[in-house]
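All the exercises in this workshop are built on plain-text protein records. Sequence and backbone structure share a record, each on its own labelled line. The structure tokens are whole numbers drawn from a learned vocabulary of backbone shapes. The record below serves as our worked example for the rest of this section.
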Amino acid sequence: MSEQPIARRLTQTKGSFAAPLFLVSLVFACFGSWSGAVGLWAASAIALSITAWTGSAGRTQWSWLALPVLGYAILVAFNTLGVAYTPAGLFQPLLLVAAYLAVRGLTDRVEKAAAVSALGLLSFFALWGLFQVGFLAAARAQAFFETPATYAAVLNLPLVPVLAAVLLGKRNAPLLAVGLVLAAGMFSADSRGGLLALAAGLGFAAIFVMRVQPPRPRSIGLALAILAAGWIVATGLRALPSTQSEASPAASARAESTHSRLELYALSWNAWRERPLAGTGYLTFRYTLEQGRAKVPSYGESNETWFVHNDYLQTLQELGPIGLLAFLGLTVLPPLLAYRRLPSLADEKRLPVVASASALAAMSVHALVDFPFYIPVCLLLYGALLGVLERRLSVPAAMPAWSSKPWYRPVRAGALAIIAVILLRPVAAEAAAEWGLRESAAGEGQSAAFWLGAAQRIDPRDWRYHWYAGQFWEAQAIQSGKREAARLAADAYAAGFDANPLEVKNLLGKISVHRRHRNLLDVPADPHTLQGWLAQAEALAPLNPAVKRERSR
């Protein structure tokens, strides 16, 4: 038996695991988008890495799409490590890049299997949302996602390619059924941003199709019929007599929402003008909102959001003009390249190009009014669609290949080792903190102290772990009256505020310990120092109820 058939069988066996692994990575990213757990993000990235290894078709030529993808991810990572630390700033761009690198190297067979499995999972989420609206009296579907807008953004990414395929003449029954389910789920979210993105995606798909062939009236009618049927299903479920659904948002509520976003836009714009070059740091808009709540009266004193609801403006504020330029490359370049190259592509490449480019354009438009580029599962799907697009658009002379250079392997190994260490720390710290909090809730004080302290030491730049430890030790000081507990609480809160001077929680904790446990501290803060700390807290969050309570005391 020759060696070639054996190698071929081994490759096929290895490739059979790629599609299920991609599905696993998508599941982890979905639940990680809901919970914000670093461990789920890491598990998704690992599954994508194994997908790339098991399903790879060999070396794939780079295209110019790699520049904005890698450039944006590197810029966010360096901004996170150098300006404003948050694990999301490491793992969210990682999911974008990992999905892009994994899918761009897949074989056609594995890519098709991965696409089918993803369509099945996302169709299940669409059905889940329909069940919420029809039988759980929900006003707007969102499955398990945090907001209906996120749910709509996720469903648009498979729905737009399905409609693009229909416009190109594909009309098999499973495709139409999936399109109907996805459309009904998207309409059940009642998201204006989702509807805008869907319209944009369908418009781009029509433009791409006209670039290569006149769309048939039957195909146009079928695509519109899918959307109409989806709307009828969603509307009908809301009208079922067996349910008493909450009312959908009224026109006045929608107008108020629009006014709120305009207030957020103005706040973000003014924050960028104060730091026009470097930006304020990735995912720092929440702190901008806390400082400027008086300018956003619609959010009151306690409503929170991490997002401007315009990813372009938020990128400008947080990453500066260079970050916005990289982000524009990520959103504008794919549809432009697709439009330019479509006429010269072979027929079998046109459908994947039209489908992926239309979905990418839809999410880019959605980013004008919502925050899909800050949702891990959306970033994963966006990266995967970029990989699909690049496999069809890459040309041999696009970018030089460095893998044959003698320095490439040691440099790659060193870079991967550094990246692994950087990424391992937040995962280990989160695991230690979660276990410590569980032990604390179970009354195991000694074990809780060990694991919470371990989280502080593993990832000292994350303010949350210092805050957890501070709360634990302050509770111990209240219960036992021990001086050591009060000292450890004060030290933990101080370390947390040093790690993130924009977060007011640790500063309030430090004030509380020095005010309530003065007799337990060796060097308690004097009244003048406490007033200075309180002034800092008021500058960071002037309308925060906790700050107001501390002032009243």
